[in-house]
Amino acid sequence: MGSMRAIWKGSIAFGLVNVPVKVYSATENHDVDMHQVHEQDGGRIRYERRCEVCNEIVDYQDIDRSYDDGEHRVILTKDDFDALPAGENDDIDVLQFVPTDQIDPIMLERSYFLEPTSKTPKAYLLLRQTLEDTERTAIVKITLRTRTRLAILRTRGKLLMLQTLRWAEEIREVDFKGVNSRAKISEKELEMSAQLVEAYSDDFKPKEFRDDYQDELKKLIDAKIESGETLDLEETFPDDDDDEDTGGDVVDLMEALRQSVDRSRSSKKKSSKKTTKKKAS
After folding, report:
1. Which end of the chain has the smaller Cβ count within 10 Å, N or C?
2. Are 203 and 161 found together in one domain?
3. In a domain? residue 177
4. Of 117, 143, 168, which closes a domain?
5. Do both 159 and 232 map to the same domain?
6. What is the pLDDT of residue 206?
7. For residue 100, what are the domain limits?
8. 258 in the same domain as 216
9. Residues 218 and 257 in one domain
10. pLDDT of 162
């Protein structure tokens, strides 16, 4: 697993079957790390946990939490939290198996990979294959850092993986007026819109897309290291004026769709010509 560290170890439990696993974070943050500094002298900005009553800096172990609803204020200690019914649990409990298409993506939170830890990982392989063949996703409960979470257990290639879920009451209910509009959509508009979708259609290849902001930020940092504070920003980051100005709100939807389809087709032709030239060379 390289430098990956397991954050949890236990078993998937369903019926009388136990599948021993380790849990690893499936994602990592590649944003550039930065510190806050004082503009005048570059000194680091430090945050202190200072008590507003005695004005002393408080050690983390001496900090409790409080709840205040405007009328009542209660302090919750570590003992209070330890008394809550989460505690330690080294089982991922399978609650039910549901059709995969019933999982609304809005409910998904963090992703984790599961590694089989048994010397004979047959139960792991069996569960993975069963989920795949039945097109089912398991709804499970897991206790992470003393907090019980609802999650899904699903397959990803040869792996089993977990994705924690938001609780149903955490999803906001909205009623936007525009969504209920009775604006008439013509057959011609639908047809042109479908052509636009077709013109942009492709297979999703995530590696083709990069975080341009982080790339440019790293470029800026490297340029500053090279040139110091005398860096000419306009020279390093010239403005891109290539994009045509569409000018104001688009009133004619059909014309906008037509132009979009034409542009997409011409840009596809250009990219295919470039690909052909590369292959030829």
Report:
1. C
2. no
3. no
4. 168
5. no
6. 81
7. 8-28+85-168
8. yes
9. yes
10. 96
pLDDT tier for residue 242 given thresholds of 50, 70 and 90: low
Q: What is the CATH number of the domain that holds 117?
A: 2.40.290.10
Convert the pLDDT of each residue in 9-34 to its tens digit: 999 998 878 999 999 999 988 888 88
Please spell the DSSP secondary structure of the chain, one letter per residue. -TT---SEEEEEEETTEEEEEEEEE-----SPP---B-TTT-PBP----B-TTT--B--GGG--EEEE-SS-EEEE-HHHHHTSS-----EEEEEEEEEGGG--GGGEEEEEEEEE-SSSTHHHHHHHHHHHHHTEEEEEEEEETTEEEEEEEEEETTEEEEEEE--GGGSPP---GGGG------HHHHHHHHHHHHHH-----GGG---HHHHHHHHHHHHHHHHGGG--HHHHS-----S----S----HHHHHHHHHHHHHHHHHHHHHHHHHHHH-
135-139, 149-153, 192-196, 250-254: segment of lowest average pLDDT? 250-254
Domain count, the chain: 2
Of 106, 137, 168, the position where a domain reaches its end is 168
